[in-house]
Amino acid sequence: MDLFGLIGKSLSHSFSKKYFTNKFEEEKIHAQYELFPLESIDLLTELIFNNPNLKGLNVTIPFKQEVIHFLDEIDVSAKMIGAVNTITIRHINGKSILRGYNTDAVGFEKTLKKLNPNPVGLRALILGTGGAAQAVRYVLRKNGVLFRSVSRINLKSDQLTYHLITASIISKYKLIINTTPVGMYPKIDEAPEIPYHLLTKDHCLIDLIYNPCETLFLKKGRENGAITVNGIEMFENQAEEAWTIWTQNT
């Protein structure tokens, strides 16, 4: 039986196994999906060696950038993004060939276009600078959305730290996207530290987190009149894109 799975450090929040198990049952696909929590990405080689029927992997926090060093090949868009969340595994002459893709970008672009089919000229704040943020940056740039990144530490000249998000910035940047794990199950009482009281009905908050379905970030946004969107649709869209890649390339 073909095996697929998810790698990451902590996977208690993930819906991936349930999603793919249901998909396989409903579509009568003879395959299995498992969660593979790894303390270190260095354990990936051992995981693949111990599971010769492993045909594909999803990748989540915190390995979307680190995993690139373990790949034999990488898709053009994933290389441009600088992060990988989907891997195909082909076993050829006793060697496992790993190729990386990014389906986060596909999932996020569908979410963005559903909110605004023509987002050119919008201004966005991206909370976080990790692998998921890289995909969001790629999509926003592709669609003509102006953006600034926000991190806990001001690493680059074009980045903000949270305490630098002023009323002036909030008034200009109407789209705010949380790409961090802050507020994700089980730490549901946490939220990114932005000035929620300055939000209005003209703002839209997108959280890439889907568990819980309404994070504290989204709840605070909703209470101040903002439009809010959680990450479940993006998750489903990127999962289907991953399945398409696996079936076409393994």
Short précis:
The chain is of the alpha/beta class and 250 residues long. The chain has two domains: 2-102, Rossmann fold (3-Layer(aba) Sandwich), CATH 3.40.50.10860; 104-232, NAD(P)-binding Rossmann-like Domain (Rossmann fold, 3-Layer(aba) Sandwich), CATH 3.40.50.
Question: What features would you describe in this structure?
Answer:
With 250 residues, the protein is an alpha/beta fold. The chain has two domains: 2-102, Leucine Dehydrogenase, chain A, domain 1 (Rossmann fold); 104-232, NAD(P)-binding Rossmann-like Domain (Rossmann fold). It is 32% helix and 24% strand. α4 crosses α5 (131-142) and α4 packs across α8 (232-249). The chain is elongated. The model has no long low-confidence stretch (mean pLDDT 96).
Q: Topology, please?
A:
Blueprint: E1 2-8, H1 16-26, E2 31-37, H2 44-50, E3 54-59, E4 73-74, H3 76-81, E5 86-92, E6 95-101, H4 104-115, E7 123-127, H5 131-142, E8 146-151, E9 159-161, H6 167-172, E10 175-178, E11 204-207, H7 216-223, E12 227-229, H8 232-249
Parallel strand pairs: 1-2, 1-3, 4-6, 7-8, 7-10, 8-9, 10-11, 11-12
Antiparallel strand pairs: 3-5, 5-6
